[in-house]
Amino acid sequence: MPKRWRIANHDPARVAALGRAAGIPNVVAQLLIGRGICDPDGARQFLDVRLSGLRDPEELPGAVRAAEVLHDAIRAGRRITVYGDYDADGMTATAILLTCLRLLGAKADYYVPNRIEEGYGLNHEALRTIAGQGGDVVVTVDCGIASVAEAETARELGLTLLITDHHQPRSGDSNWGPDADGSARLPRVAAIVHPGLPGSTYPFAGLCGAAVALKVAWALCQRASDAKRVTDAMRTFLMRAVGLAAIGTVADVVPLIDENRILVRHGLNCLRHYPSPGLLALEQVTGLAKKEGIDCEDVAFTLAPRLNAAGRLGQAPLAIELLMTEDNERAVKLAEFIHGLNDQRQSLERSVYRAAHKQAEELGNPRESAALVLTGRGWHPGVIGIVAGRLAEHYHRPTVLISLDELGAKPGMGSGRSVAGFNLHAALSACGQYLVAHGGHEAAAGLTIHESAVDAFRQAFCEHAEQAIAHDDRVAELFVDAETPLAALTHQTVRQIESLAPFGHGNQRPVLCTTNVRLTEPPRRIGSTGRHLSLRLEQHGVALRAVAFGGGDWEAELNEANGPLAVAFKPVINSFRGRQTVEMQLTDWRVDGSHS
User: How far apart are the C-alpha atoms of 148 and 584, rounded to whole Å?
Assistant: First the structure.
């Protein structure tokens, strides 16, 4: 759908003043001001990312208490189970904490629920299974904060339960504290480790599950060493764990600010300097090993999707084994298998996308509806969330996909993705009378629903969106950091822009725009499925290659466009066979003169 471009205004004098005071190029100063960083100290702190800037785990609520309980359990020979999750954040968190426990001599194993059969989070049957197999202590990672009833089951089973999480309670709508009858919303457990606990003075609530697990592992290493300074073996483990936490941070799309920025900047280096056999094998099979370094895009579009593919297709234990194995031969086999799972996931995703996209068009004009609720019998539950995200982006509408049971005997499983300014969790709560269950947050959520209630839910959900989303907000907006000619995109300038990395949620790669650009040759589809587009653009004698990821459908429109174009893009340095060139990642385009 067409996007409304919002080009940032800049005060040249203010930009120049910050550049002089902070000793940075003006282009970097301009981009920092656009991010709300306007003073020299803030600029230097943002650019000088030091690992020592991570807060000590004793500052994180519950971390020291959890470390004490786990350390005592290790010394007593009690069996500890790490209860994880099946996404990349949960799997890296599981690998971090389980590796730490075993390093310290614990009798430790793990449990990850099957995405399709059990769903997310703690469940009563899993706890009974763990207890029946001789488990003593259960420590969650990336889940558990909403598991009030499950915590009571753990108590009845005699299990010591610890929770490490970063989510909000699903039933609380951010409303921590007691219910009206005085009962606690927070689970009654031995320790809760959470960066956003009520009454806490911890200054950053944006850590992902793997980062929280890293802090607990760090505290546990300090407790085992009886000192702030840990042994060399523990330090090597912690550096490798920083790399895993970086994967979890990028994969979980938490804001890349504050501690997350530190974790990712240094974690990407740790993936190269402290590589595990499994990740090394995955880099080999995906071609990342040929690159000089790994960046956020490599994690977001290559490593994390393969880990997530294992979880989406019910094979999360294999991904965790990949992250933990020290056997090089086993690592290669696992990496190749998981790489193949990702191919399978992509095939399933394409099939569901085609069917859902066709249904969206057949239901009426999706651009006139405030939201989309699409259903398909037998759609794979592991990919409907990805497809919902693609359709939400394509139509700029909150989108829910529901996979109906092929036999009609079980409730349908749904997954939704939102757009800026629309609280998906609140919308599902408002329509809760039609749902069996639901959970999630503002941007993404899951649900179960009886097939007979789908039509009523669709009507209620779309009516809620109609009231909540103003008509002006139904046009996607593209924030553009600055307008610049192609001649200004020198290697040095783009390198200066790269100093703002790592890029991701909360610190997006800068978007620039320019006008009076022409195609020097017809665009061509690239990629195994032709989903992407390669172009060559020229302006006043300067020509650059551009790639539009996911823009394959633009091919016909671009060929039909008459006259010069206005383009919005992200400047990047492309490294290929030892040669580095400036390229453009095309974000949007239109016939020149039409942008506003």
Answer: 49
Write the burial class of residue 463 (CB in 10 Å: 0-12 exposed, 13-18 middle, 19+ buried). Answer: middle
Rounded to whole angstroms, how far apart are CA atoms 304 and 578?
26
> Cα–Cα distance between 581 and 230 in angstroms, integer?
43
Both tokens assigned to 209: 């599950």
What pLDDT does residue 475 have?
Answer: 85
Q: List the domains of the chain with CATH numbers.
A: 4-48+477-591 (2.40.50.460), 53-229 (3.90.1640.30), 363-474 (3.10.310.30)
318: its two tokens: 């294999």
Between CA 196 and CA 206, with CA 201 as vertex, the angle to 5 degrees is 35
- Dump pLDDT digits (tens) for 498-531: 999 999 988 999 999 999 999 999 999 998 888 8
Are 109 and 79 in contact by the 8 Å Cβ rule? The answer is yes
Alpha carbon distance 565, 52 (integer Å) = 47
Structure confidence at residue 352 (pLDDT): 97
Residues of the chain with pLDDT below 50 are 170-178, 180-184, 595-596
Total Cβ atoms within 10 A of residue 468: 17
Angle at 498 between CA 492 and CA 504, to 5 degrees: 160
What b-and-e string marks burial along 125-150, b requiring 16 or more CB atoms within 10 Å of the CB?
ebbeebbeeebbbbbbbbbbbbbbeb
Structure tokens given for 562 = 């008459």
Tens-place pLDDT, residues 71-126: 999 999 999 999 999 999 999 999 999 999 999 999 999 999 998 888 888 999 99
Q: Which two tokens stand for residue 303?
A: 């490593």
Query: Which residues, other chains included, contact 499 with Cβ-Cβ below 8 Å and sequence gap of 6+?
Result: 24, 28, 47
Q: Give the pLDDT of residue 179.
A: 52
Residue 582 tokens read as 């400036």
If we measure between CA atoms, which residue out of 536, 543, 535 comes closest to residue 485? 543
pLDDT of res. 177: 47
Strand boundaries in 462-578, DSSP class E: 477-480, 482-483, 512-519, 524-526, 532-539, 542-548, 565-576
Q: Where are the alpha helices (DSSP H) in 422-554?
A: 424-430, 454-468, 491-498
Q: Which two tokens stand for residue 559?
A: 């060929």
For the whole prediction, is pTM greater than 0.85? Answer: yes
Rounded to whole angstroms, the Cα distance separating 60 from 57 reads: 5
Q: Are 419 and 438 in contact (CB under 8 A)?
A: no
pLDDT digits 0-9 by tens, 327-356 = 999 999 999 999 999 999 999 999 999 999
240 contact partners, CB below 8 Å, separation of at least 6: 270, 274, 275, 276
Spatial distance between the Cα atoms of 526 and 226, rounded to a whole number of angstroms: 56
Cα gap 404→335, rounded to integer Å: 32
The tokens for 198 are 């009520």
